[in-house]
Please model this.
Amino acid sequence: MTIALKAPIQAWLDSLCTRWLGEKPQLDQVIDGFYGQVYLLTLADGTRRVIKRFRIAGFAHLEMQATRRLRRYTPAHLAVPDILQFETVEQGGWDAFLMPFVIGVPAYDTPQEHVPMLVEDIVALQRHWHAQTQTAFEDLDGNLHDNFLESYRAYLAPRIAFLEKTEDFNPAQKRRLFATLDLLEPLLAPLANDMPSFIHDDGHAGNYLVDPVTWRLCAVIDPAAARFAHRELDLFHLPDSRPEYGLLERYLALTPPAPGWPKRRWLFSLWDDIKHAEFTGWRDEAWFDRKLAAFEETPAD
Model:
């Protein structure tokens, strides 16, 4: 079955494939995401490749850096795609890169009888990442900070500026969002002596691949801003897909969090969603209301 793309995108993809692959391969599948569109391709000799096109200029370079760092800090028996080719919007019309195809199915498709072992695999990987450390915390721009509070303030500053200016959130909801920051210092105080940890930054079940025969973890994909930050910035993502798997609960059973985690979870999640709203134009008032209610109803200690 032929997959139809919009004419400008099809023309761009044909041109890119001719330059990068020397042919116009078969388009097997198109996957839409928040920040881009992914094309799964099969070449004439049967080789499979993946091209990712980004909707926002500059994001391909950031994800390329994050992917290469993820490869460095992930155990060798787990696949992390390499970046084979890369170009910017100025060069070809969109930011894009080329990757090898990684065999596996999304972890969220794991049959229930195999979920317990998969949970152990994913949690072990997260704890492996979080054991990797360095002396300074990084923000999204790669700047170094002596402590997590300072680095998180650097993360928040552009989000706050965006929220102050946008008219796409109703005034009452904006007030509630800004009010979450009244507790920023006391909520982050229990983390003051923690060292930075390497994080994936979007490690929910949709970004892990499993072997469809053994149903064991085999690959990791799509890091956000993989960097050295606080490990809790990974943890709040764990229930974003298949919360019934209990990834977060298993991690916390093995590595208990510092006091204040239940409320910090919603603080981190809310301001991560504001980042998505800022970068993509995404809006969902009911979504924010649900998370704000969870934050407001959760005790601070």
Residues 105-297 form a domain with the Aminoglycoside 3'-phosphotransferase; Chain: A, domain 2 fold (CATH 3.90.1200.10). The CA atoms of residues 35 and 56 lie 7 Å apart.
